[in-house]
Specification:
Blueprint lengths: L6 H10 L24 E5 L2 E4 L4 E3 L1 E5 L12 E4 L5 E3 L4 E4 L3 E9 L2 E9 L3 E6 L2 E4 L5 E3 L10 E6 L13 E6 L8 E6 L12 E5 L7 E2 L12 E5 L4 E6 L4 H7 L3 E6 L1 H6 L1 H10 L2 E4 L5 H4 L9 H12 L3 E8 L6 H4 L5 H18 L4 E8 L13 H6 L2 H13 L4 E6 L7 H15 L6 E4 L2 E3 L5 H13 L3 E12 L5 H17 L3 E6 L9 H4 L3 E2 L12 H11 L2
Helix pairs in contact: 8-10, 12-13, 13-15
The structure holds ligand G3I.
The site of ligand G3I has 9 residues, from loops.
Length: about 550
């Protein structure tokens, strides 16, 4: 244990411990360092930057005093106003992350200076083991190892000077620089993650120099478009330019928060892989054409047949698509057990109630909306259709159907739909009267569905717009639920049909309360038209071989417009 020593002795010991006993010294004050100069001005250079995701740029800052003299050793605090667009390190190195603009600030003392950084679509790609992967995950070039003699890092940039934050839109050429030089002919594969497929449908691999006017375009081979693989035989050297062709209907619709949908046949979905692929690529919502109708899904009083509906709903959920339920109260495809004999009001009410509670509740959380009541208006427009529902159960069964549907799925939007009601006419007047009566009575109706089964000539934009406007003014959403434009066999009206589709979607897009357009089927290979209207067909945006028709192009161009 240490013996206690007096503090004085300890202090002396410490002072003197440097050697011979030192004479006590009186502390002397050394001159204080001069106060640091006050920062009067900070400048950053460069004051603007244009990068692609993954790239970085070193910014420098200088602080000056009031006399303009640079202050050596000044320290700066760096910041980015949008760290999702780009971050900046403490040394001023900015790293681009996602397309957008951000202000990079350098602060010293109380003074700051800024630079505007723009991050454009594109991205850095790096080579690893023969696979060239875009660091921003947008695209993945798979180039066999050994085929390259180029460096291991490339920049993907739009060829033209893009407007700030421009996305790789239709036909935007991008260049991968420095040029990817191929030592040997190789098969290059370009992959897009399916999740990003909405933005890019096909890819053209072109080899040449940006100055070339004749590009060697490779066949766009996308055998497994689910993975967006486009393979091409590459020979020679040059700049590999990747063209981002037009995205799908779905790609543009998603950017506008718009539902572009198609009615789905469960038989086609099960049997036809091209049907499945194009449906998932081009549409972000589905309507079940028949599988959820009363007869198919509820064939006997105590028997439900959910398999077909489950198949379509399962596909939609797996492909991140909305589901529109169709249809609860309708006069067609009713099961015999419901209509045979002389059903009473009480029987019909209890049967419909349990049907709605069972079916709507089963798909709650997957269906985003329902056609609750369909084709309730008489064709001549003189009030309600005299179906067995109305004749036996009474008109208030419509009100009840909406109430039961809301209780069964509070989150689903509920619609009243009909056909030949797309313009202002006697039938749509009656639909308007019914919809507004329901709304005024506090019935949970959210909107009306205008089916839109057309033949040429279709209504004018003014006619469509006026009808949409009055339902919107009444506080109702509107959507086109079953669009098709049938053509008489033997006529070559594809261009006119395409224009008609354009007029329809333009009218919807111009109306803020019209956020959805569904075609009734999407390929002429599977359509109800020929079987129902002999001598007519070709009503849909894709032909028998899933080729896009003018109608597809006008829908896509309309959705692409800002
Ligand atoms: O599934 C059965 C099959 O098992 C049976 O062998 C075959 C022969 O009888 O019939 C098949 O059911 C047919 C069903 O389509 C599925 O193909 C029905 O008979 C047939 O009537 C039904 O037609 C549907 C029609 O509504 C009537 O429900 C059409 O496909 C469908 O496109 C059409 O869609 C309606 C909307 O729901 C409401 N708006 C009008 C639109 C056109 O009518």
């Amino acid at each position: 244990m240490l013996r206690r020593v007096s503090l004085l002795a300890l202090a002396v010991f410490v002072v003197g411990c440097g050697g011979a006993e030192a004479a006590p010294t009186t502390p002397t004050s050394s001159p204080l360092p001069p106060p640091p100069p006050t920062v009067a001005v900070v400048t950053v250079s460069p004051t603007t930057g244009s990068l692609v995701p993954g790239e970085s740029q070193l910014l420098t800052a200088v602080a000056r005093d009031a006399a303009g003299t640079a202050i050596a050793g000044a320290t700066f605090t760096w910041s980015s106003s949008s760290v999702s667009v780009a971050t900046v390190a403490s040394d001023g190195r900015a790293t681009a992350l996602t397309p957008g603009t951000t202000t990079i600030s350098a602060t010293s003392g109380a003074v700051s200076a800024t630079a505007l950084l723009t991050v454009n679509e594109g991205g850095l790609i790096a080579v690893s083991g023969g696979t060239v992967t875009a660091l921003n995950g947008q695209l993945r070039l798979e180039i066999p190892a050994g085929a390259l003699t180029a460096p291991t890092a490339f920049v993907v940039r739009p060829v033209a000077a893009p407007t700030p934050n421009a996305r790789l839109l239709a036909g935007t050429a991008v260049a991968i620089t420095p040029a990817i030089t191929f030592a040997t002919p190789a098969t290059v594969r370009l992959r897009y993650p399916t999740a990003l497929a909405a933005d890019v449908v096909e890819t053209q691999l072109r080899i040449g120099r940006l100055t070339d006017t004749t590009w060697q375009t490779f066949a766009v081979v996308a055998p497994d478009r689910v993975n967006r693989t486009a393979a091409a035989r590459v020979t020679g050297t040059g700049t590999l330019a990747v063209f981002a062709p037009p995205p799908s209907l779905r790609g543009y619709a998603q950017r506008r928060s718009f539902d572009i949908g198609a009615a789905v046949s469960v038989d086609a979905l099960r049997a036809d892989s091209t049907y499945r692929r194009v449906l998932a690529e081009e549409f972000n919502s589905v309507t079940l054409e028949n599988a959820m109708k009363f007869g198919p899904i509820h064939p006997a009083a105590t028997t439900y047949a959910f398999a077909n509906a489950d198949t379509i709903v399962g596909f939609a959920v797996a492909n991140n698509m909305k589901v529109y339920g169709h249809v609860l109260l309708w006069h067609t495809q009713q099961p015999a057990w419901l209509t045979d004999g002389t059903p009473t009001r009480a029987f019909l009410l209890s049967s419909l109630k349990s049907h709605i509670e069972t079916v709507v509740a089963r798909y709650a959380g997957k269906t985003t909306s329902w056609d609750v009541a369909n084709e309730m208006i008489a064709d001549n427009g003189t009030g309600l259709r005299r179906s067995f529902w109305i004749e036996v159960a009474g008109a208030d069964i419509i009100d009840s159907a909406f109430v039961w549907a809301r209780r069964s799925d509070p989150n689903a939007r509920l619609f009243l739909s009909d056909y030949s009601v797309e313009t202002v006419n006697r039938k749509s007047d009656s639909l308007f009267a019914l919809a507004t009566r329901l709304k005024a009575a506090g019935v949970p109706i959210d909107g009306v569905g205008l089916q839109g089964h057309f033949m040429l000539p279709t209504p004018s934009a003014a006619q469509l717009t006026a009808n949409l406007a009055r339902f919107a003014a009444a506080g109702l959403d509107i959507r086109y639920t079953e669009i098709d434009v049938r053509l008489m066999d033997g006529t070559d009206n594809l261009a006119v049909q395409g224009s008609a589709y354009g007029t329809i979607i333009d009218a919807c897009l111009a109306q803020p309360r019209c956020k959805s357009l569904t075609t009734w089927g999407f390929t002429d290979k599977y359509s109800w038209i020929p079987g129902t209207f002999p001598g007519f067909g070709r009503a849909l945006p894709f032909d028998q071989l899933f080729g896009p028709k003018p109608a597809y192009l006008t829908l896509r161009d309309a959705l692409a417009r800002p």
